[in-house]
Design brief:
The chain is an all-alpha fold. The chain contains eight helices and no strands. It has helices at residues 4-15, 18-34, 45-71, 87-100, 103-114, 119-126, 130-155, 161-176. Helix 1 runs parallel beside helix 3 (45-71) and helix 5 packs across helix 7 (130-155).
């Protein structure tokens, strides 16, 4: 139970789908239970089960790509309607922008904001240094902020340069804040 949110965040970061992420979490914990005797260091269980989930997600994506290629169909992207500034719409925009990030950026943002892990805990789970985790988190926030700024600037074309400048500052500042975020609707 202590590791489920982290494993779910890893699965969701890779699959971008809540249902698939739930299936992968279940699969990862079953595989971990069956292979528990192969775990050398019990203190690294969280990272171990997260890597099982990461591998399972990768296998699922490869399998889906093969199926998609064989059927010669392409999947539809998220709805690209003009955003309404309501709270739910803003959350949807945020989720879409997070989903557009590469897997590593999505993973670290979801581990930090969705699962609530500190950078020290993330570093342990990803088997990297804390400084590397901090840098990845910073870069992921900056990339996310840049994507959101680009999207907002398109809506602000008719406004003054001052308004665009202030919007850029506000969104940049928001990207640097460690506020809790969840992907719930």
């Amino acid at each position: 139970e202590r590791h489920i949110n982290g494993v779910y965040a890893v699965a969701l970061a890779r699959t971008r789908n809540h249902s698939d992420a739930e299936d992968i979490v279940q699969e990862a914990f079953v595989k971990a239970y069956v292979g528990l005797d192969t775990l050398r260091d019990p203190g690294k269980f969280g990272g171990w089960v997260a890597s099982i989930a990461r591998n399972a997600a990768g296998q699922l994506l490869v399998r889906r790509k093969r199926e998609s290629d064989s059927m010669d169909t392409s999947s539809a992207l998220a709805d690209a309607n003009a955003p309404d500034p309501s709270r739910e719409e803003l959350h949807a925009i945020l989720r879409d922008e997070v989903n557009e990030l590469d897997g590593d950026a999505r993973e670290i943002l979801l581990l930090h904001y969705f699962a609530g892990y500190s950078t020290r805990e993330i570093a342990e789970r990803l088997d990297i240094t804390r400084d590397a985790a901090l840098k990845r988190l910073q870069r992921s926030r900056e990339k996310l902020a840049g994507n959101i700024i680009d999207q907002l600037e398109g809506a602000l074309d008719t406004r003054s340069a001052d308004v665009r400048k202030h919007t850029r500052k506000v969104v940049g500042a928001l990207a640097a804040v460690s506020a809790p975020w969840t992907g719930k609707k």
